[in-house]
Design brief:
2 copies of one chain form a homodimer. Chain A is an alpha+beta fold. Chain A has a single domain, classed as Aminohydrolase, N-terminal nucleophile (Ntn) domain (Glutamine Phosphoribosylpyrophosphate, subunit 1, domain 1, 4-Layer Sandwich), CATH 3.60.20. Chain A has 5 helices and 12 strands. In chain A, strand 3 and strand 4 form a beta hairpin. In chain A, helix 1 packs across helix 2 and helix 3 runs antiparallel to helix 4. The longest helix of chain A has 23 residues. Chain A is globular. Chain A starts with a strand and ends with a helix. Chains A and B meet through helix 3, helix 4 and helix 5 of A and helix 3, helix 4 and helix 5 of B.
C-alpha cells in the first residue's frame, strides 16, 4: 500500500508521499510516488500515485512521452493543456487507458489492477487546483470545505487532518500536519514506509518551492514524531473522563 | 459499518461499541452491538459484534437458545463451557454456521455476508480472556503484546490505542482511551454513530462492574471530546517542525 496526502491552502499546496511498495509481505521495495512536471514560473504539476506500480509507472511514462512528442498539443501534453482541469482530464484518461491495457493482460490471472492519483498544480494566470483521480479516470477536486485529498492507506492519518487543516492553515503548520498524519500511518501500518517525499508549492510561484526527501532516522522527523507522542500522552493524561 | 474495541488489561477488561447499522446510506438504524451473558460472580461473557446484522443477530439468538435448552451441556452452552477457550469455540462455530446458512440464501443475489465478533470473559477460577472471532469462526486472542482487539472501522481509532494502551493501563485511563479512539472514528466516518455502549469487567469480579450507555449529546462525553480536540490543537501548535 501507500499513503499520499495533498493540502490545498490559501498560501499554497503541500504534498507528502511515502515510498513503500510491496508485492506480498515478503517483497518490499522503495519507489518514488511523487512526480513533478515543471516549467518554473509558468506551470507546475505534481502527481502522487497509489496502487498497482505497473499501472502508475506506465501512466507516468506515457504522460512524459506525450510531453516529449514532437507534435505534442494542448489535448495530449499536460505541459500544454490550457487549464488544470484539462490536465486532470488528460491524466485521468491516460490512467484509465493504461489500467484497461494491463487489466486485459491480467484477466487470465484473475487479478485486477487499480491505481489512483492526486494531481496538484497551477499555471501562470490560473488558480491552484488539486484533484483526486480515481482508477476509472474520473476525478474530484479539493475545495475550501475539504482542503485535503488522500490516497492509499488514508484512514489512520485522517483524524489529525480533520482536526487541524483549514484553508487558512499556514504552509509551515501544513507541513507539520501532513508529517504527523504520515507518522500515525507509519506507526499503525507496515505497508507504508520511509523515506518520505515532501513538496511545497507556494501560491503563484508556479514551481516547487520546497522539496525534501526525509530518510528513515531523519533527526528532525524523529524529534517531531517523539515530541508529538509525548504531547499526545500528556494531553491524554490531563483529559478527565 | 461499526466500531467496537476491547482492551484486556491487568486490572480488567474495557469494552466499547457504537450502535449504528446501515443498509446503504439511506437506511440507518440503531442496534445494540454489545451483548452480555452473566452469572454474576461465577461467569461473565461479553460479545461485541460487527458486520451483517442478520448474521450477528441470529448468532446471538442461537447462543441464547443453546443456553436455555433443557438439555444444554458444556459443549453447546457458553454458560456451561468449561473454559473461555471453549466459549470462543462455541461462538466461532455458531457464527460460521449461521453465516453459511445465510450465505446459501444469498447466493442468488450474489451478496456475501460477513461478520466478526469480540468475545471477552472470565469464569470463576479462570483468567480473563479476550478473543477476536473471524467470519470463518477461527479466532485470535489478545495478549500482553497486543492488549486490544478491534472490529469494524478500526483504522481511524488505532493510532491513539497504539500510543497509550499497555497492559498496566488503569481502568479509568482505559475508558478514556477507548472513548477517544471512538471519538476519532465518529468524526471521520459517518457509518459509525452514537449512542455508545461502554462496559467494564473488573478482574475476578466475573460480572460487568460498570455499564453505561452514552447518548448523542452526553455532556460528559462531549466535554471530553472537546477537551481532547483543544489539547490536540494546542499540542499541534507547540510542536516545532
Amino acid at each position: 500500500m501507500t499513503y499520499c496526502v495533498g493540502l490545498l491552502l490559501n498560501d499554497g499546496m503541500v504534498l507528502l508521499s511515502d515510498t513503500r511498495t510491496n508485492a506480498g509481505l515478503d517483497n518490499i521495495a522503495t519507489y518514488r510516488k511523487m512526480f513533478v512536471f515543471e516549467d518554473p514560473g509558468e506551470r507546475v504539476i505534481a502527481v502522487l500515485t497509489a496502487g498497482s506500480l505497473s499501472v502508475t509507472q506506465t501512466t507516468i511514462a506515457r504522460l512524459r512521452e506525450a510531453i516529449d512528442e514532437p507534435d505534442a498539443d494542448a489535448g495530449s501534453s499536460i505541459m500544454l493543456a490550457p487549464t488544470m482541469l484539462k490536465v486532470a482530464e488528460i491524466i485521468g484518461n491516460t490512467l484509465a487507458s493504461v489500467r484497461q491495457d494491463i487489466d486485459e493482460k491480467m484477466t487470465a490471472a484473475k487479478v485486477s489492477t487499480s491505481a489512483s492519483m492526486i494531481v496538484a498544480g497551477q499555471r501562470a494566470g490560473g488558480a491552484m487546483r488539486m484533484f483526486l483521480i480515481y482508477p476509472e479516470g474520473n476525478f474530484i477536486e479539493a475545495t475550501d470545505d475539504t482542503p485535503f485529498l488522500q490516497i492509499g492507506e488514508h484512514k489512520y492519518g485522517k483524524p489529525i487532518l480533520d482536526r487541524v487543516v483549514k484553508p487558512g492553515t499556514s504552509l509551515s503548520e501544513a507541513q507539520k500536519a501532513v508529517l504527523l498524519s504520515m507518522d500515525s500511518t507509519l506507526r499503525s501500518n507496515l505497508s507504508v514506509g520511509m523515506p518520505l517525499d515532501l513538496a511545497v508549492i507556494e501560491k503563484d510561484a508556479c514551481r516547487v518551492t520546497t522539496r525534501r526527501r526525509i530518510e528513515a532516522g531523519d533527526p528532525q522527523f524523529k524529534a517531531m514524531s517523539e515530541a508529538w507522542s509525548v504531547a499526545l500522552r500528556e494531553s491524554f493524561t490531563q483529559i478527565s473522563i
